[in-house]
Give the backbone structure.
Amino acid sequence: MKQILIVEDDRNLNRGLYLALKNQEFQIVSCFDLKSARQQLACGVTDLVLLDINLPDGSGLQLLREIKTANKPIAVILLTANDTEMDVVLGLEHGADDYVTKPFSVAILRARVKAQLRRSITSESKAVIIDSYHFDFEHMTFLKGDTPVELSKTEQKLLRLLVENQGLTLSRTLLLERIWTDGADYVDENALSVAVKRLRDKLDAAQYIKTVYGIGYMWVVI
């Protein structure tokens, strides 16, 4: 699940953005100033920032510079009433990935957010290392220690969803929709239980892949 950080001091607009973007794909966090935004970014789980330039405790461009010089790549869409050519150029020169001026279409903003998140996924390394596990989704190689583990396409999709959302409970409904994209409505829910059991057994990952009874599954951060 991707996390979107909204940094906007207009509380009505911030709330509107939250409601417009909130769904099962995104976790939305709202901040109203630079201080709280920096505290949230320090947690290291943000994937995209919707950033206003004019904030009560400083310029969003300063935060933009900080984000773009950090180790983890985070997409930033500037959200501002400043619509002069110089504002656009300045924002892009500071590293902004996109620039949206107020007022704006919520549908267009949502599309741009999804586009940036897709771009960040493809640009990131597909290798995930967790303790003795090494998962390379690009080359479809999966290791437990030095031992290769053969995973089916379904198990690969399930594993990727779990490890990309470590510490978060993913509902059975979400997993069904994301794994069986051709028609989750026609998939027996027992298929998910079987896939989880097989993945857990193949990886010997009972301590990592936990069942959250009545809700779904989680890759536990140990």
Q: What stands out?
A: The longest helix spans residues 106-123.
